[in-house]
Design a protein that fits this description.
Elements: E1 22-25, E2 28-31, H1 38-44, H2 48-54, H3 61-77, E3 81-87, E4 95-106, E5 111-118, H4 127-140, E6 148-154, H5 158-166, E7 171-181, E8 184-194
Parallel strand pairs: 5-6
Antiparallel strand pairs: 1-2, 2-3, 3-4, 4-5, 6-8, 7-8
Helix pairs in contact: 1-3
Length: 201
């Protein structure tokens, strides 16, 4: 069957090169996950707030390490992109502060969904906003080529709503019963940023 519209992001544009790191500034970097990061992932998914909104937990460092292995493979499959949010160590090891991802990639239409978490000790300093803004700018760069990013969260997650608005993702609407959480169905806020918006840098 002939395809009348060519893919917006051609197959292989992303995966033909190693996953890049994305600078944030102020000593912060988004970099690909590494096997030694498994303890940080285990700690994150032991946190009740992260479990509440991300609906999973890790029970061992081995399980966390298997997630990291999958996150690495996702880049080359062009299905998801996962970065560790780190504070550079100045010669020592990086300090993992959180995670940010572009999930559910549909390269043919230049679409992805932005998701993130921040470790408890790193909350309250605007880290999520800085990471989301850095990923948005990277995704809308001409060399990357995404056209639309969404950020979707429970209507009860007021912190994520503030991050979305501050990071250039205006609210577009509510997806009723959009996700099933441990305590039942949640309506979901749908925020979106489109390349060419005034806030897309």
């Amino acid at each position: 069957m002939p395809v009348l519209v060519p893919p917006h992001i051609p197959p292989g544009r992303l995966s033909s090169s190693p996953q890049p790191s994305v600078p944030v500034g102020d000593g912060l970097l988004l970099r690909p996950w590494r096997p030694p990061d498994a303890p940080a992932v285990l700690a994150a998914f032991s946190d009740p707030a992260i479990q509440r909104w991300h609906m999973r937990r890790a029970d061992s460092e081995e399980e966390a390490a298997s997630w990291i292995e999958q996150w690495t493979s996702d880049w080359y499959a062009e299905t998801d992109i996962h970065w560790a949010i780190v504070r550079l160590g100045g010669g020592g090891p990086d300090e993992v502060l959180g995670r940010i991802a572009l999930r559910g990639l549909i390269p043919a239409i230049g679409y992805a969904e932005c998701a993130y978490w921040v470790l408890p000790a790193a909350r309250g300093a605007g880290l999520a906003h800085l990471a989301v803004d850095a990923v948005r700018r990277w995704a809308f760069d001409e060399g990357t080529g995404f056209e639309r990013l969404e950020l979707v969260h429970s209507v009860l997650n007021e912190a994520s709503c503030r991050v979305a608005a501050k990071s250039g993702f205006p609210l577009e609407g509510i997806r009723r019963h959009g996700n099933l959480h441990a305590d039942g169905w949640h309506d979901m806020h749908v925020h979106a940023s489109v390349r060419g918006d005034d806030n897309s840098g």
